Amino acid sequence: MELIIIRGRQDDGKTTTATILHNVLIEYGASVKMLHTNENSLSVGTWMVDFQAVLDWVNKRIVIISEGDYKNRLSAIMDSLIYDYRPDIVVVCARSRDVDGSSYRMLTEKYQDLIKPENEFWTQFVDDYSRVMEVKRPIVELIINRIYNI
Fold first, then answer.
1. What residue segments make up the domains of the chain, in order of their start?
2. Beta 31-37 vs 51-57: how paired, if at all?
3. 22 class by beta-carbon count within 10 Å (0-12 exposed, 13-18 middle, 19+ buried)
4. What's the pTM value of the predicted model, to 2 decimals?
5. Running DSSP on this structure, what letter comes out for residue 131?
6. Per-residue pLDDT reduced to its tens digit, 88-102
7. How far is CA 8 from CA 35, 41, 70, 88, in A?
């Protein structure tokens, strides 16, 4: 299993980046096996919702988890989805803090053998919402390229 981490500070757009990734993978032909969210769909708008998704794309099972702020919740979600779906790739959001108790620290401790610098992607804060796609899409394309080449 490969682990891809979307990193950033609070409100830098990690969930937005994960949502765009999910939607672009579908545009590229991915099939959705599971989508859990409090909304009916995932759209890029002014209010983003956390989600969990399982997709199949280019003979790979991909799990995307946008809920990366709280280590215990993230750990439980990852354990469940990894056990239930046996993914090839897990894409997870995590705040950038590498301190005791942070979700990123949990990832580096629990999945230390899976942490690779080339699989960490940093989000960028966008204060002008009309530029979100312009700023986030290149990061998403890098992640998709990485997924494709795994």
1. 2-149
2. antiparallel
3. buried
4. 0.92
5. G
6. 999 999 987 788 889
7. 23, 24, 14, 24
